[in-house]
Amino acid sequence: MDGGRMVMPVKALKTALAGVILAMAWACGGGGGGTPDVAPTLSVQPADLAVNPGDPATFSVTATGTAPLTYQWRKGGAALSGATAATYTLAAAAASDAGAYDVVVSNKAGSVTSRSATLTVKTVAPTITTQPVGGEVFSGNAFTLLVAASGTAPLTYQWSKDGTALAGATDARYFLAATAVSDSGTYTCKVTNAAGSATSNAAVLSVMPPTTFDLTIDTMYIVQSTQDYAGTVPLVAGKDGLLRVFVKATEANTAKPQVRVRLYNGATLLQTWTIQAPGASVPTVMDESSLAGSWNLPLAGSFIQPGYSILADVDPGGTILEQSKLNNAYPTSGSPLPLTVSTVPTWAVTLIPITQGGLTANLTADNLGKWTTRLGLIAPVATLDVKLGAAYTTSTTLSSDGTGWSALLAELEAKRIADGVQASRYYFGAVATSYASGTAGLGYVPGAAATTGYRSALGWDKTGYSDGGNYPEVLAHEVGHNFGRNHAPCGNPGNVDTAYPYAGAQLGVYGYNTATGLVQDAKSTLDIMSYCHPLWISDYTFKGMLTWRLASGLGDVVTAGAAVQDGLLAWGRTEGGAWILEPAFRVRGVFNPGSGPHAVQAVDAEGREVAAVEVDTAAVGCGNDPAERAFAVFIPLGTGDFDRIHAIRLKTGSQVLATRQAGPTTAGVAELRVLPSGGATLRWTSGHPAALVRSPRTGEVLAIARDGAVDIPAAQEVDVQLSDGVHTRQLHLKPAQAVPTSLD
Predict the structure, then answer these.
(1) For position 470, what pLDDT does the model report?
(2) For residue 82, what are the contacts with CB-CB under 8 A and spacing of at least 6?
(3) CATH 3.40.50.980 is right for the domain spanning 215-342
(4) Which pLDDT tens digit goes with each residue over 648-661?
(5) Confidence (pLDDT) at 609
(6) Does the pLDDT value for residue 472 go beyond 70?
(7) Eight-state DSSP code of residue 134
């Protein structure tokens, strides 16, 4: 109070008036009765950070005030996109992230800005992680020096030679496209950043004067039995072989480079091999005649498959100085070489010991595998299915001049059909002969249209001869005829293949024996289809056999026939230019339709056709008569057709080449008597020119006999079919049974 007056400071007066005004506002209803908004305040400020490059960095604040609060982080005063939370994190800090960061926190009552927090991204000095490597090169070759370093980016590079910086050499890679002798020296690289620098170890480069010495791969190929230098002979899937890589040098040397071989299936690497040098130097002239002239790798058949390819390179480690490294691969393109591989069917064969003239072939379960050894090595076969058939007896006697061989071969093909085996199964009859020099074998050569027949051949069982006369070579030769091959021109054979490309049946190209590991000479070794020796197989014969085996419906790729059914076995051959139709037999078999220029007809007594099939004939390889032909065919018949048939005809167009009529109607009587030897003799009545003897247990034909009698090696029950030429009388006999039991 001052003289009765109240005295107040101005500031206090303003506060009091404000309270009065606010009280008046509330009294007038202006306050609404709510709580006032509170502007944001920061209780925790963002802290300064210092991190290593690549480490995370997180800024955070703690704010209070009326919700909702919004956040906006800034760097250097500029808003950061998406940085709208109470924390802001850099997942991997980089040097460019260094700077001042703050955050603006807002609500509807106001905003507040945090302190400026500094982010420091530490700088790491360079460290050399990969040192440059020097080397030796000939002048003109390219050379590359490489260095690698860690440290905070950006890193700068400077290469130096002999301590002097190289102009423009400021990358991690220093490349010399064409070196010169003056490029020899000591090279280092200095790597620098803001934190410091590091210098690499010294790399010494020696550049020698130009050289003419160079290594290349002239060619490479896989040989399974035969191959030409260009590698054009197709391969057989699953058949073992030898990879030969022919490395060539430009001049005399003492280099012994390795060869790396990579095998691919499509783009997938399957296998890598390293082949050591076969000698003390690299040849300058290619020589296939010796394995010392190539880098060699035996390959199992599993590595020779369709779709596979190979790539080879000489001196893969680059240890030998040469003119160029750009031509060390084969193919030179660097792309793998596709293999030409054919998948062939399993070769199925039944080997049959034959008794003729009282002699039985030495063919047993113990020596069965030896018979097909040579064929398996040389021919386009990979998998063999070899079976031992039941012993077969013939009334035919074989002579050294070839007499009887064609008749026996015809019997064997007839047996093959009568046995009802798969059309693709071959029959090979083994014989023992009374002579040591003369005809050794015989085999059918199918005609161009023969679809499923003529897979029969014969051969003697002898050993101790020059290569070509022993039983495995005889089998390979005669089955070669079954594979569609005629003779190669040596030894004066008949039916010579006039297209054979090499003089005197020479191989023409080098072969290889995977069993002995020996190269087969191109000139001194002769083709298996000749009559000369020593023998192997030419590329020409191999490709011909392969083509035949792969020919659908002609070779060994055959379609399964119909179900087994009744029918007639008709067969015949020429002798002296005239056709002979052999006695027909009623059999159960599989009909495989064929085609050809001939027809075999079954006709009734009025000459009307009951049934007919087309047929092609086969030539007889190794026969005495080059013009000799033969056929054998299964004619399917209905139950009522057999009695209607009166004759069998062989025709070409409208011309009848031969006819076989039924003989006089007689009851077939036969007996089977035990012999002191343990065998049995079968005798039957006249009027039936031939008898077919079959095992009722296995169904195999044991004999096709003539002249009313035949001896069987083992006394056993048999089914006998007596043929009058067209009709068949069927009997079942037991040893010593005089009165037969008819099966009709």
Answers:
(1) 96
(2) none
(3) no
(4) 999 999 999 999 99
(5) 95
(6) yes
(7) -
pLDDT for residue 29: 40
Residue carrying structure tokens 């040469």: 322
Per the prediction, the chain carries an average pLDDT of 91
CA 79 to centroid of chain Cα atoms: 66
Q: Are strands 295-299 and 241-249 parallel, antiparallel or unpaired?
A: antiparallel
pLDDT of residue 194: 87
**Residue 7 tokens, joined:** 């005295």
What one-character-per-residue DSSP string does 582-634 give?
PPPEEEEE-------SEEEEEE-TTS-EEEEEEE--EEEET-S-TT-EEEEEE
- Read off the DSSP letter of residue 28: T
pLDDT at 592: 78
Structure tokens at 19: 């309270």
Nearby residues of 677 by Cβ (< 8 Å), 6 or more positions away = none
The predicted model scores a pTM of: 0.76
Hey, which CATH number is domain 670-742, 1.10.150, 2.30.29, 3.10.450, 2.60.40? 2.60.40
End-to-end CA gap in the chain: 160
Instruction: Give 560's pLDDT tier (boundaries 50, 70, 90).
Output: low
The answer to whether 157 and 189 have CB atoms below 8 angstroms apart is yes
- 575-604: b (≥16 Cβ within 10 Å) or e: eeeebbbbbbbbbebbbbebebebbbbbbe
Tens digit of each residue's pLDDT (9 = 90 or more) over 707-732: 899 988 887 899 999 999 999 999 99
Contact 186, 204 (CB under 8 A): yes
pLDDT band for position 240 (50/70/90)? very high
- Note whether 310 and 263 are within 8 A (CB): yes
What own/partner pairs with CB < 8 Å and gap ≥ 24 does 362-365 have? 362/430, 362/432, 362/461, 363/388, 363/430, 363/461, 364/388
- Indicate the fold that domain 48-121 takes in CATH: Immunoglobulin-like (2.60.40)
Residues 184 and 207 sit within 8 Å (Cβ to Cβ): yes
Please tell me whether the peptide bond between 331 and the residue prior to it is cis, using omega within 30 degrees of 0: yes
- Nearest to 478, CA basis, from 523, 454, 443, 453: 443
Q: What is the CATH number of domain 127-208?
A: 2.60.40.10
In this model, does residue 31 exceed pLDDT 80? no
Using CA atoms, how far apart are residues 505 and 441, in angstroms rounded to an integer? 19
